[in-house]
Amino acid sequence: MSDSDFLAERFEAHRMRLRAVARRMLGSEGEAEDAVQEAWVRLSRVDVREVDNLGSWLTTVVGRVCLDMLRSRRTRAEQPLQPETPLPAVTPDPEQDALLADSVGSALLVVLDTLTPAERLAFVLYDLFGVPYDDIAGVVGKSPAATRQLASRARRRVRGAQGADSDSVTPARRRELVDAFLAAARDGDFDGLLDVLDPDVVVRTEAGVTTGATAVAKGATSYARHIAGAAVPALVEGRTGIALLRDGRVERTLAFTFVHDRITVIDITTDPERAARLDVTLV
């Protein structure tokens, strides 16, 4: 067996774990495969004899690759949403959602997207895969103590969401929060939006993710001016939300998630064909 074949064999022995780490970090099967492939490329460039623990080394490399990808994704998504910009359709991956739900619990699916890249890395590597803080610290570029704080912060938010999800906010209160959100957006009331948005609110569209109350509020005020007369309260796939109508047909939808009496996630469907297939009940 050649050296390259032996190295490939050792790498394959760790592939499943590496894919699991990358899936939980990125939430995307395709991106996870890209991250694992990049780890193989980096492995092929080093002298393996200098690596004491190949499994640990590969895990931290995949973590570093995923961290870079998350930061790049977040930078691209920070700009406020522009309503006139065409957005590409994205096909949901039910199999990937099931894998994540089985392994970390359905409540975590939303929460992971609200963490900063560094918090997500610290939480996933330490809490889900048992990677020591010392190793994670080298990936995020912080001290072990600061890394421990990152994981602790992420852990508190995860536990908070698991213990206080939308079910703890009454339907009437959800409607009040959505009405207040829409009214503030229509009026350009930036402070009013901040009052109903969680500081780490997440907006998800087919184009990507926008995080943080400031960025979301800026996008909401810009976006709402174009749809003020078309917004109708609705249940979107059973969630409190808003339907945007054109000629009596649902053209776009916004579905909201609530934690601790704040809006924490807004899922926006901008593609009219996809919106038309959703279960939407006008209220």
Describe the structure.
The chain is of the alpha+beta class and about 280 residues long. The protein folds into two domains: about 160 residues, Butyryl-CoA Dehydrogenase, subunit A, domain 3; about 120 residues, Nuclear Transport Factor 2, Chain: A (Roll), CATH 3.10.450.50. About 55% of the residues lie in helices and about 15% in strands. The protein contains 13 helices and seven strands. It has a seven-stranded mixed beta sheet. Strand 1 and strand 2 form a beta hairpin. Helix 7 packs antiparallel against helix 8. The longest helix is centred in the N-terminal third of the chain and has 24 residues.
What's the quick description here?
The protein is an alpha+beta fold and 283 residues long. The chain is built from 13 helices and seven strands.
List keywords for this structure.
283 residues, alpha+beta, 2 domains, elongated
Second CATH tier, the architecture of the largest domain: Up-down Bundle
Give the quaternary arrangement of the chains: single chain
Distance between the termini: 68 Å
Number of strands: 7
Strand order of the largest sheet: 2-1-6-5-4-3-7
CATH class of the largest domain: Mainly Alpha
What coarse outline follows from CA principal-axis ratios? elongated
